[in-house]
Amino acid sequence: MGRLISGWYRLLYSALRTPVLKWLFLPRFKALQLSVSPGHGWQESGEFFPASPAVVSRSQTLGEDLVVAEPETFPAVTWSLWSHASVTNNRFFGFLLHGDQFMIQPRRTPGPWRLSYRKNRVLWSSGDKVLVDRNRGHRMHVDRAIFLGGRDFTNWYHWLVDGLPQLHMANRLPEHLRDYPVIVPEQIFRYPTMLDALELFKGHRDMIVMPEWALLEADSLVWIDPLELSNLPKQQGPSPLDSRLHLLHRDGMESYRDVYLEAYAPQEVTPHRKLFLARDTKRRSYNQEEALEVAKEFGFEACYPEKLTLAEQVQVFREAKYLMGPSGAGFAGLLFCQPGTSALCWQDTRIRSMTILPDLATLNHAEYWHIFYTSDESGGLFRSNYTLDPQWLRQSLHTWLD
Questions:
Q1: What's the domain of life for this entry (predicted)?
Q2: What CA–CA distance (Å, rounded) separates 106 from 102?
Q3: Which of 64, 135, 177, 208 has its CA 20 to 30 A from that of 298?
C-alpha cells in the first residue's frame, strides 16, 4: 500500500510540473524543489557571523578513552528578506515556501534527506522533490514578520538552543527590519520559563502568535539561519548512530549565552554544588527515587529544573560543579555552566552517538560523560521505561568522581 501511495504522489508531482495542471491545482497542491538556506529569490540579505570553527564534540563513554573530535567549520550565519513567502509552525522542522522553492535551514551533512510527513503539509518527498498540500490546517496572513525556524518548541532545549538564538540575532538586523513583529509558536505559552526567556530578546516588538501546524503567508518575511546545525530531517544514507549529528556556532552561542549571564548571574561564583537532575517520570518512567538515594551517598542533592524560574536555572547551573541525571532537556542548563563542570548522563544504549547536549558542555569548556542502560523498548527511543541497577550506578559514580 505504501508503494502505491508513493507512486500516486510521484505521478501527481510530475503532473503539477506541467503548466495547465499547475494552474488548475495551484490553490492546494504545490510541486516544489528542495533547497537549503539562503536559497534563491530573496530581496535582501546579510551576514550575522562569518564561517568559523564550530563547537563540535564526540560522545564520551565513562571509563573509556577520550575521543577527540576533528575540527570543523560552521558555515556563515545569514539573514534574508523574502516577499510573499509562507512559513509553517510544526513540531519537526521549519520550512519556507517561495515560488517553486521548499527551503529548509542549513543541515549538518549533505542530502538527500527524508522529510517527515506528520502534520506539516508535506505529502511526499524524494531527493530534492517535495509535494505540499497548502490546505491542511489553519492558514494566516500578515504584512510583515520575523520567522523563528527550528523544531519541537514544546521542548525546553529546542526553544533555548534552536529557536531563541534567532531572535537574539534579529536584534542585529538592519534598522528598517529590526522592529518587524516576531512569529511566536503558541505552544510556548504553556511554559512560563519559555516566556521569561522570550522577554529577554523580544524587546519592543509585537508578537504574532501562530497555532501549531499553521501556515502563515507574509508579504514581507525575515528568515534567520540557526546557530546550531543538526541532521534533521533524518538523512536516508548514514545510520542513525552516525556521530555527525550536531554543531554549534561558537561566537554566536557565546554572545547569546552572555545575555542570560548579564541578566541573571552578573556576579562571579565558584562552582561547588553536586546536582541530581530529577524530573516528572510520567513520560519515561524509571526508578528515580532509588537512583537519588544512591546519589545522596556521594553528596548530591535533587534539583528539578522544570520547577525553577529562568533566573533560578541560570544560577544553579552556574553553581554546579557536578551534574548527573537522565538524558533530556534538563541538561539544557549546561548553556549556563562554568569551565571545569562535569556532567554524567545515562542514555538508552540504542542512542550512543548523540552530541546535542555534549556540545553545550564543550561550548563552556566543561565535561560530559555518558553511561548506558537498556530500556524495555516500550515507547520508542525517547519514551521507553527502564530500571537502573543501583550497584551499577554506584560503581559508575565511583569511577566518575575518582
A1: Bacteria
A2: 13
A3: 64
Alpha helices in 238-384 (DSSP H): 250-264, 288-296, 310-319, 356-363
Contact between residue 137 and residue 172 where contact means Cβ atoms under 8 Å apart: no
The Cα 216–Cα 141 span in angstroms is 6
Cα torsion 114, 150, 243, 376: sign: negative
Quote the pLDDT of residue 6.
77
Q: Name the E strands within 309-379.
A: 320-326, 342-348, 367-373
Instruction: Name residue 263's amino acid.
Output: A
Question: How far apart, in whole angstroms, are the C-alpha atoms of residue 167 and residue 147?
Answer: 9
CATH no., domain 265-401 = 3.40.50
pLDDT at 205: 95
- Classify the phi-psi angles of 365: left when phi > 0, otherwise alpha if psi is within -120 to 50, otherwise beta: left
The pLDDT of residue 11 is above 90: no
Q: With bands split at pLDDT 50, 70 and 90, how would you rate the model's confidence at 379?
A: low
Q: Where are the domains of the chain?
A: 2-49+75-230, 265-401
The Cα 98–Cα 33 span in angstroms is 10
C-alpha to C-alpha distance for 89 and 207, rounded to whole angstroms = 14
Bridge partners of residue 81, in order along the sequence:
44, 222
Q: Which run of H or E residues covers position 218?
A: strand 215-224
Separation of alpha carbons 180 and 223, rounded Å: 12
SS3 label, residue 371: strand
pLDDT higher than 90, residue 223: yes
Q: Could you tell me the maximum CA-CA distance found in the chain, to the nearest angstrom?
A: 74
Lowest mean pLDDT among 9-13, 51-55, 234-238, 320-324: 234-238
Residue 345 CA, chain-centre distance (Å), reads 19
Secondary structure, 3-state, 103-133: EECCCCCCCCECCCCCCCCEEEEECCEEEEE
Q: Are 381 and 353 in contact (CB under 8 A)?
A: no
Reply yes or no on whether the pLDDT at 9 is more than 90.
no
**Top-confidence range, 110-114, 122-126, 128-132, 218-222:** 218-222
pTM here is: 0.92
> Per this entry, what is the length of the chain?
402
* Continuous segment of H or E residues that includes residue 9: helix 2-16
Q: Are strands 129-133 and 122-126 parallel, antiparallel or unpaired?
A: antiparallel
pLDDT single digits (tens) 246-301: 899 999 999 999 999 999 999 999 999 999 999 876 666 888 999 999 999 999 99
